[in-house]
């Protein structure tokens, strides 16, 4: 229970469904703020208090579990290291993989609980198996604007078997109305946004404080120096703003970051046509069920609320190869590619490389 409206209604719905529910708030910050500064961030003392008030209304036990050290190691330190290596990570996926559906779920099972329910907008659909049992599949939420299946694409079949997402069949406005009808104080509480451990939303500033200033060159694809930067880690492929180039392009076209080179501390810029890729190699593949066999038709999504693109994909051990039917711009190493079959999540991988292949796959 984060202290927000979604997890509050999720807890209430689990009670309505007949489950024995205990509320748990995760203390993830090693120096939690007393009050929320804005709609950004989470895990403040205020949030814990909001979650406790909801638990009191529901009449359920409530606990705060301190996972700050694990969160720092698996999410914050990973985020810093990825940017330092020139990649663009998604900390929400890492948090779901390492904290909410690993550390939290493992502790819950060890204490005798059966499953974890959260306020994520996604659906678990049960389909018959050949042996008479059922298979639990992860699907997109009904509310496309709030769908969070992308950041849950790291869950495997065993984790899905012990996960519930009670909000997946409802839109956000209806959730707020339900919360108000139930008398929850948090019914109109703003949603949290962006990266929870960077409450002011200034990712570049946070990285500079963590990694220090590291001046270097901004160059074009021919190696000509066009400007300076204070740290290559603050740039990502596809970025246009904040380049502060001293020399305008000869053709007058805007320029974008096309590559980050941490080994030479260079940021490479070029025209928009250099951003289009149609081939992705992903590692750390995670499957929400059986791994695909052979080449399969899928939808591929590379951003949390981005477009889904028609593609083919095939697994190669811990890696996955994805071939897009159209070019996609701004695909950066470190991002995640999540694969879909209709509304069903097939699995995900961390993007290791993206490129343009002129010849179609045989």
Structure description:
InterPro entries: MnmA-like (IPR004506), MnmA-like_C (IPR046885), MnmA-like_central (IPR046884), MnmA-like_central_sf (IPR023382), Rossmann-like_a/b/a_fold (IPR014729). It catalyses: S-sulfanyl-L-cysteinyl-[protein] + uridine(34) in tRNA + AH2 + ATP = 2-thiouridine(34) in tRNA + L-cysteinyl-[protein] + A + AMP + diphosphate + H(+). Belongs to the MnmA/TRMU family. This is tRNA-specific 2-thiouridylase MnmA. Keywords: ATP-binding, Cytoplasm, Disulfide bond, Nucleotide-binding, RNA-binding, Transferase, tRNA processing, tRNA-binding. The protein is an alpha+beta fold and about 350 residues long. The protein folds into three domains: about 5-190, Rossmann fold (3-Layer(aba) Sandwich); about 210-275, SH3 type barrels (Roll), CATH 2.30.30; about 275-355, Translation factors (Elongation Factor Tu (Ef-tu), domain 3), CATH 2.40.30.10. About 25% of the residues lie in helices and about 30% in strands. The protein has helices at about 5-15, 45-60, 70-85, 90-110, 155-160, 170-180, 205-210, and strands at about 25, 60-65, 115, 125-130, 135-140, 165, 215-220, 225-230, 255-260, 265-270, 275-285, 295-300, 310-315, 320-330, 335-340, 345-355. The strands form five sheets. A six-stranded antiparallel barrel has the order 11-14-13-12-15-16. A hairpin with a 4-residue loop joins β7 and β8. The longest helix is centred in the N-terminal third of the chain and has 20 residues, at about 90-110. It is globular and about 65 Å long. Residues about 35-40 have low confidence and may be disordered.
